[in-house]
Specification:
Number of strands: 13
InterPro entries: Glyco_trans_1, Glyco_trans_4-like_N, Glycosyltransferase_grp1
Shape: elongated
Largest sheet: 7 strands, parallel
Radius of gyration: 21 Å
GO molecular function: glycosyltransferase activity
CATH architecture of the largest domain: 3-Layer(aba) Sandwich
Strand order of the largest sheet: 3-2-1-4-5-6-7
CATH topology of the largest domain: Rossmann fold
Strand content: 15-25%
Organism: Aquabacterium soli
Number of domains: 2
Number of helices: 14
Keywords: Transferase
Helix content: 40-55%
Mean pLDDT: 94
Domain Glycosyltransferase subfamily 4-like N-terminal: 14-161
């Protein structure tokens, strides 16, 4: 089996990281893979050990020229199917290229934002199979009229060998982020975009920080709203000096185990890879009841859920966890076990591979019946 993968993301986190896991697992399973990705993208170098890598311009939704570039690559490589992993134009133009070259097309859907039903019905006709990374996303597509037979749920995965509990780097952590020895640290790992819920956390923090003078907060990530958040922090006597925005970190496997709590009060979320990573590191979670997040955060087991935007509930749960080290440890241990049971890389790879085989069998049967 030979598969052409298309990933349009520039950075190696979220969906792009899942693509690397998948390529690695498929290579082990004997599947030949080619990856088409943007010039200068982080995934190009990371994927080279697991797949043939072809870089090309990928300029987003308006880049109709991507159809021609992918058609040429399909003709050259002759894959058995095309797997599209992201939006930014590749979900549409990649599907058109596959259709024109009469190659089966599989799409991975990683976001839970709704689309008008008329658009969904037109768009997903281009794809032979749609893989959702959470049941929440699957339900969105079904509610929009996408045929159930082509919609499948294969959850994203976390590398539990890389992300694991252990505070042996605590001194490094405290020095890196200029934290006192007695600090209790809340982390949030997310792009600075509206739907991630930074505003909710910032609104809850004054009460939390007043109640726990040893509490500090790290807002990790980058994005268009980051500068505004930094300005808001600097303008607040309560937040200034207690809340940091260190930017994107490529060493989350060292950072996350040193956090006491991870907060993620998102309004929309396909699944939440940063939550999987934090749970794998044994960190308790407080997150928004949105998208696929309830498939990770089990209230009373490994964390707590809030209604998106509920500042009072977020305040309450953060204070409760900060004040109870035993509860944090219990939630953390349960979170690690939950991830190992439900979100392994092997299960993700096998789930994708089963859908490939299903589609190729269906295509072969259709050819035979002509």
């Amino acid at each position: 089996m030979k598969v052409l993968h298309v990933e349009a993301g520039m950075h190696l986190y979220g969906g792009a990281l899942q693509v690397v896991f998948l390529l690695r697992g498929l290579k082990t399973a004997g599947v030949e893979c080619i990856l088409a990705c943007p010039e200068g993208s982080a995934i190009a170098q990371e994927a080279a050990a697991h797949a043939g890598v072809v870089t090309m311009p990928m300029k987003g939704d308006a880049d109709i020229g991507l159809v021609g570039r992918l058609r040429a690559l399909i003709r050259e490589e002759q894959p058995d199917l095309v797997h599209l992993h992201s939006r930014r134009g590749s979900d549409i133009w990649g599907a058109v290229a596959g259709r024109l070259e009469k190659t089966p097309v599989v799409l991975s859907r990683r976001v839970d934002n709704p689309e008008p039903p008329w658009l969904a019905k037109l768009k997903y006709r281009l794809h032979d199979e749609v893989i959702c990374i959470s049941q929440g996303i699957q339900q969105v597509l079904l509610s929009e009229g996408v045929p159930p037979a082509k919609v499948h749920c294969v959850p994203s995965a976390v590398d539990t060998q890389q992300y694991k509990p252990g505070r042996h780097d605590l001194a490094w952590f405290q020095q890196t982020f200029s934290l006192p020895d007695n600090a209790l640290t809340i982390g949030m790992v997310a792009q600075f975009i509206q739907r991630k819920g930074h505003d909710t956390l910032l609104a809850a923090l004054p009460h939390v920080l007043a109640a726990y003078p040893q509490a500090h907060v790290l807002l990790l990530g980058q994005g268009p709203l980051r500068d505004g958040v930094v300005q808001r922090i600097n303008a607040s006597e309560t937040l200034r000096g207690r809340v940091q925005c260190p930017g994107f970190r490529s060493d989350l496997d060292k950072v996350l185990p040193c956090l006491d709590i991870v907060a993620h009060p998102a309004f929309m979320e396909g699944l939440g890879v940063s939550l999987l990573q934090a749970a794998a590191c044994g960190v308790p979670l407080v997150a928004g009841r949105a998208g696929g997040i309830p498939e990770i955060v089990q209230p009373g087991l490994n964390g707590e859920l809030i209604t998106p935007g509920d500042v009072a509930a977020l305040d309450k749960h953060l204070q409760h966890l900060l004040g109870d080290a035993e509860l944090r440890a219990r939630y953390g241990g349960a979170g690690r076990a939950w991830v190992e049971q439900h979100f392994s890389i092997d299960a993700m790879v096998n789930g994708n591979l089963s859908i490939y085989r299903r589609r190729l069998q269906a295509s072969s049967t259709a050819l035979t019946q002509r």
